[in-house]
TrEMBL record:
GO terms for cellular component: cytoplasm. Keywords: Decarboxylase, Lyase, Pyridoxal phosphate. Coiled coil: none annotated. This is Amino acid decarboxylase. One of its GO terms (biological process) is carboxylic acid metabolic process. The modification N6-(pyridoxal phosphate)lysine is found at residue 288.
């Protein structure tokens, strides 16, 4: 049984330490990233002794937590411009705390009626936002699982016997090379193999060239995958034209909106998703631009029955009687966390408009970075950003070496990608604290370290 007094004391310590952590992170008072080698860090944390002997108390826990929090990446930091992971808002953090204590794996309704009901309503809201109000959905642990689930639904549509008889060898998936790697991974997990992937022609920036869509003969197109927006560049495919092309040919149209679908909440940016309502399936990650902690990703489909057809299960201890409120038939996971609560609490605190304002602000800050960098002759920017992702190069310097030098002292965290065959630096504006001062400092620091 829980020692309630000990839990209350430890929980209070946790809240105080986390509050201090977020506060100093938002103020930029500490390095954005620290990467001590695992052997040294394990020793500092006392991991082996604690694993073997136990004995942690609230007092020793506080020291452990301080060390743990100091070693890592601070996503609330104004100099965090790295991966597409949310700077989480505190209501989502509360949801994680609640789930950690209650542990209701609500894919089976009887194991978490309130959590399941919250997920139902969150999904209804998301379906309406993407223009599929009569469709169905489910939340899953991440965009990779979401893409896999959506493509399973597509496979069930075109090859309904595949679950029992195996995958036919005439199925192909149309996707641009810029599609998220999870699409390629899903093709092999689904049993289609990499040879089933037909790369779509793109422009120089990786967007699908709608004037050069292929006519496939001798094969059945299982799905066409479009990006809104592309992970590497933040640029959007022409969903309206692609949707019409798919409709004319009876092809399943899948939109990977993991990062960009949240722009539907911004009056200034929802036009970037024009045509998303033509999709047969959409994925939307809340743990990117809806500011939830990882992971919470939606799979949304036009026809609810398509999602129900994605899986076929037999388990007498779970599947019996009336399963009308269970979500377990729609997901890879059997034990599924209370993911909807994170999205709901952020909405309950901030509302649609508040989250939409956040999206608009981050997009505007990224555009501001583009403007500031364009004023400096040494910076090459291949496109004007459409989202909060900007790719660029600094002269002919080793771009990867520049990034590593910035990470080494913890001054900035940014990533890189290849574009047009060349390595580019890449910033993703996620933290609300990022401002012009930080952007100018980053540009100055890049110029400085590039001369080493």
């Amino acid at each position: 049984m829980w020692n309630i007094e000990e839990f209350t004391e430890a929980a209070g310590i946790t809240v105080r330490e986390l509050a201090a952590y977020v506060d100093e992170s938002q103020r930029g008072a500490v390095p954005v990233i620290r990467r001590e080698p695992p052997r040294e860090l394990a020793e500092r944390l006392g991991l082996r002794d604690l694993i073997r002997d136990g004995g942690m108390t609230p007092g020793t826990y506080q020291e452990f937590l301080r060390t743990f929090l100091a070693e890592g990446t601070r996503l609330h930091h104004p100099a965090y411009l790295g991966h597409q992971s949310a700077s989480p808002d505190f209501p989502a953090a509360l949801a994680d705390f609640i789930h950690g204590a209650t542990n209701n794996p609500m894919a089976v309704y009887e194991m978490g009626a309130a959590a399941a009901t919250v997920e139902f309503e969150v999904l209804r809201w998301m379906l309406a936002k993407v223009g599929l109000p009569a469709g169905g959905g489910v939340l899953t642990h991440g965009g990779s699982l979401a893409n896999l689930t959506a493509l399973l639904a597509a496979r069930a549509r075109v090859a309904p016997d595949a679950w029992e008889n195996g995958v036919p060898d005439d199925l192909v998936i149309l996707a641009p090379p810029s599609a998220h790697y999870s699409v390629s991974r899903a093709a092999s997990i689904l049993g289609l193999g990499q040879r089933s992937l037909v790369p779509l022609e793109t422009d120089a920036l990786g967007r699908i060239d709608v004037s050069r869509l292929p006519e496939i003969s001798g094969k059945r197109v299982m799905a066409l995958v479009a990006s809104a927006c592309a992970t590497g560049t933040g640029l959007h495919d022409d969903l309206r034209t692609l949707g019409a092309w798919c409709r004319e040919r009876g092809v399943w149209f899948h939109v990977d909106g993991a990062h960009g679908a949240s722009a539907l909440l911004s009056d200034r940016h929802r036009h970037l998703l024009d045509g998303i309502d033509q999709a047969d399936s959409v994925i939307w990650d809340a743990h990117k631009m809806l500011r939830t902690s990882s992971l919470a990703a939606a799979v949304l489909v036009r026809e609810e029955g398509d999602l129900d057809a994605a899986f076929r299960q037999q388990a007498s201890y779970l599947f019996y009687g009336d399963q009308g409120f269970d979500l377990i038939g729609r997901t890879v996971e059997c034990t599924k966390a209370e993911l909807g609560l994170k999205i709901f609490l952020n909405l309950a605190w901030r509302g649609e408009r508040g989250l939409g304002d956040y999206v608009a602000r981050q997009y505007a800050t990224a555009h501001r970075f583009w403007e500031l960098a364009a004023r400096r002759p040494a910076f090459d920017l291949p496109y004007e950003p459409e989202s909060n992702i900007v790719c660029f190069r600094y002269g002919d310097a080793d771009q990867a070496a520049i990034r590593e030098r910035l990470l080494l002292d913890g001054s900035f965290h940014l990533t890189s990608t290849e574009l047009g065959g060349a390595r580019h630096l890449r910033v993703t504006v996620m933290a609300p604290a990022t401002d012009d001062k930080i952007l100018e400092a980053l540009l100055d620091e890049i110029a400085a370290v590039a001369t080493y």
